[in-house]
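Suppose you are handed a protein chain with no further information: no name, no annotation, nothing but its sequence. What can you learn? This example shows the usual starting point.
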Amino acid sequence: MKLRVRPRWIILLVVVILSIALSGMAYGALGDRQLGRGSKGQEVNDLQSKLVQLGYVVGPIDGKFGPKTEAAIRNFQKDHGLKVDGLAGTQTIKELKLLTGQSTNASGKSVGNKNIDVNLLAHAVNGEARGEPYRGQVAVAAVIINRIADPAFPKTIADIIYQPGAFSSVNDGQINLPPSASAIKAAQEAASGSDPSKGALFFFNPAKTTNKYIWSRPQIIKIGNHIFTK
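A reasonable first move is to predict its three-dimensional structure. Written in structure tokens, the prediction is:
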């Protein structure tokens, strides 16, 4: 008996195959295609995550390229001398990957992502601001992030935190303590763009320091036991 395949089933099969193929394209690797308003998938999720690592606000990391992601891309492009078009093309993605690659310490050991290493940032927040109000913890994280954009400081979170003499928690070993849930949340919030410190580059506890230099810095705001300064 000869089996007859009806044309409509052939058409349906072709549609299913095309749908699977297109679905796979939507979840390619970051850099495989240009991303813009309306793009969706894992590569957009990766793009958003990298922008957040660098301190740009994208809203929810949901794999959907919307107006906030476009605005973040434009700001990133402007900050790094790229063509400002709001599209994540070859050059923009290349620069993002370069800035969010792996950073190493002096011995060559990987210490996490460049610039915004949220895990390391949380360790620093825990060591420097444990017991401070949550807003103060976010502010401490923001100070560390703010230093990235200042030419007087190193360009990665690891190098900023481990800069000799920069943070007491490195000197006394408290940087190595497991970060609290509050410190982790504060680091994540600061990495997403929140800055209660209002652009501060330093902070100190007036009850614990007599350092003339830190006292000479223009004061911005006091949160908990810390004064935040320019």
